[in-house]
């Protein structure tokens, strides 16, 4: 069972998400929180696998709460799926830099929400298609962004030629299946390469890989 904590300042939203997700055979909603600070406290108490985190909440917003959850928990920290009604501002990059594993708009269908929970629980990164396009096209204007070539960690030298190839495709938000089709290899082979890339670069998941690739200048907007 995937244990989920729902953090949103609107009671009706929390109830709606809880009712739907609780009906899934592989998902259990273990608790709710009305603000970021409460989300951190409840996460420490309940140990969820995934936290559905709203962005705009009182006391502490979702981005601050995400950063604290990830930094406190280390490898044992829950995966955070950011839920918001906004896709036209700077939340995407800020959420990824804070350690979020996914970013989904609140107008997503109930089925998409359940699948998003499963995806981030499995260690994959998830970005709504419209959000992914904005992340790639507008990266350089976002606060906290880095100019190309800002840093190239020595860790990159540990990647084999094939691993680097896979890493660059991951950075473009391609799925394992899409990467497999591009490289003419089995999907399981891609999964193995991705795992090695994350381990060698000491990255938590694919979302961090996307941020890392842009900050090192390996991938550039529009290229």
From TrEMBL:
Residues 152-217 form the HTH luxR-type domain. Residues 3-121 form the Response regulatory domain. The keyword Transcription applies. The modification 4-aspartylphosphate is found at residue 54. It comes from the Bacteria. InterPro entries: CheY-like_superfamily, NreC/VraR/RcsB-like_REC, Sig_transdc_resp-reg_C-effctor, Sig_transdc_resp-reg_receiver, Tscrpt_reg_LuxR_C, WalR-like. Pfam families: GerE (PF00196), Response_reg (PF00072). Keywords: DNA-binding, Phosphoprotein, Transcription, Transcription regulation. This is Response regulator. It comes from Nonomuraea purpurea.
